[in-house]
Amino acid sequence: MRRPPLVPLLPAVLLAVWLLLNDSVAPGHVVLGAVFAWLVSAAVARLRPLPAWPRRLHVAIGLCWHVFVDIVRSNIGVGRVVLGAARRQPTIGFLQIPLQLRDPHGLAMLSIIITGTPGTVWAGHDPASNTLTLHVLDLQDEETWIRTIKDRYERPLMEIFE
Amino acid sequence: MSAADVPLWAALPAALLLICGGLLALVGSLGLLRLRSFFARIHAPTMGSTLGAGCVLIASMLTSTALAQRPVVHELLITLFILVTAPITTMLLMRAAILRSDRSES
Questions:
Q1: pLDDT class for A5, splitting at 50, 70, 90?
Q2: Percent of chain A topping pLDDT 70
Q3: Are residues A61 and A136 in the same domain?
Q4: How many CB pairs under 8 A join A and B?
Q5: Per residue in B17-63, pLDDT tens?
Q6: Is the model's pLDDT at A103 over the cut of 50?
Q7: A5: helix, coil or strand?
Q8: Which residues contact B51 (CB under 8 A, 6 or more apart)?
Q9: ipTM for the complex?
Q10: Where are the transmembrane segments (chain B) (predicted)?
């Protein structure tokens, strides 16, 4: 059963950005920010008619933590590869990963997570077969990569956006 | 307000974070020099824009929080904008490189 959506993402983020920019949570700024957030959301609604309604935000906290840990870990990994490049050039490679995630916002988040993590870059996505092409800096073990993407990122994103 | 006004509890971790961030950015840039193919080089600068930038921003938050004597979290915005924009360039470069190598093969 689908739970009702929590909050539309765009106005909430815009309000948060407004408050951060002004560095204040005074009631006046909250009201002004809310008005701006609503106006901008209404203005861009025609550009992007599909609003994002994330659910189950507790899943997102776990996901953010996983992403943070993975970014730290892969920074160390890529650093090692770079420093060891004189001895051994990394074995770069492409991976094809079939996805179940269909929601465009979920896919956008997945692309940001994958590309934002050093060592992996989103290299393409085929909407017909829903396969993701992933480019990996040091491809040692294909299975581990596929499992990481699917279990750590894709499943929580599906829970949040679908 | 000068550097001497920053209390030690903020100055020490901030300095450490700045060194870490600088080192990460340096290693990332070094990757541009040392890795041989374009597809390998595209991965290296991400180090500077993720954890490297993160370290510098946390250091900035620490020192400005200590100086203003209240939580200052502006820097989260920079994190958000880097996180949203940096992958787009990387993906565009990646797609362009793939299309070019496809064309040169055929």
A1: low
A2: 94
A3: yes
A4: 98
A5: 999 999 999 988 888 888 888 888 888 888 888 888 989 999 998 88
A6: yes
A7: coil
A8: A71, A72, A75, A118, B21, B24
A9: 0.80
A10: 6-33, 45-64, 76-98
B96 contacts chain A (CB < 8 A)? no
> Does A71 share its domain with A35?
no
8 A C-beta contact, residue B18 and residue B56: yes
Same domain, A63 and A42: no
- Please say which residue of A53, A70, A87 terminates a domain: A53
Range of the domain at A28: 1-53
As given in the structure block, the two tokens for residue A125 are 């996505």
Q: What is the pLDDT of residue A1?
A: 37
Residues of B in contact with A137 (CB under 8 A): 40, 43
Are A31 and A4 members of one domain?
A: yes
Tell whether A32 and A69 lie within a shared domain.
no
Q: Which residue, chain included where needed, has tokens 């490049």? A: A85
